[in-house]
């Protein structure tokens, strides 16, 4: 089983689409590093995320050192982003992010990195989330002014998940 290390952007998009509960109920296991949780999630909807099943993990001293070194080398990445990438280097862990800079760094450092559309595809494949729920959620996410998802991939999924 793969453990998904999420950055904040993925959780924001899932919330924006009304898909948080569905994401945690379809068999996906998501965690965030404790620093990311404390700085970016806890004040807003952290307790809800924890109740839904979001795991909060501590990094080892070596992982913290890697994150700090990465932050010194890549000023465009936040420290919470570096913690997420460091956590994703663990065996059976993968990073899910919507951040372009973090995605590029993760692709270079660890190879495989996933995004929101992959998460939605996993939800669809699970069979426990109705296509209409995915359609409505992705429609809300893609209509937001800050949405940076590829239009053609969004359209493909909306067409596939459209109500009959």
Structural class: alpha/beta
Looking at the chains present, what oligomeric state does this protein adopt? Answer: single chain
The total of helices stands at 10
Q: Tell me the overall shape.
A: globular
Which regions have little confidence, pLDDT < 50, spanning 5+ residues?
Answer: none
Query: Describe the biggest sheet?
Result: 5 strands, parallel
Can you walk me through this structure?
- With 164 residues, this protein is α/β, with parallel strands linked by helices.
- The protein is 60% helix and 11% strand.
- It is built from 10 helices and 5 strands.
- Strand 4, helix 7 and strand 5 form a beta-alpha-beta unit.
- 37% of the residues are buried.
- The mean pLDDT is 95.
Give structural attributes:
globular, 5 strands, alpha/beta, 5-stranded parallel beta sheet, 164 residues
How do the helices and strands line up, and which of them pair or pack?
Layout: E1 3-6, H1 8-16, H2 20-25, E2 29-33, H3 34-41, H4 46-52, E3 55-57, H5 61-73, H6 79-87, E4 93-96, H7 100-110, E5 113-114, H8 116-126, H9 131-143, H10 151-161
Parallel strand pairs: 1-2, 1-4, 2-3, 4-5
Q: What is the compact description of this entry?
A:
By secondary structure, the protein is of the alpha/beta class.
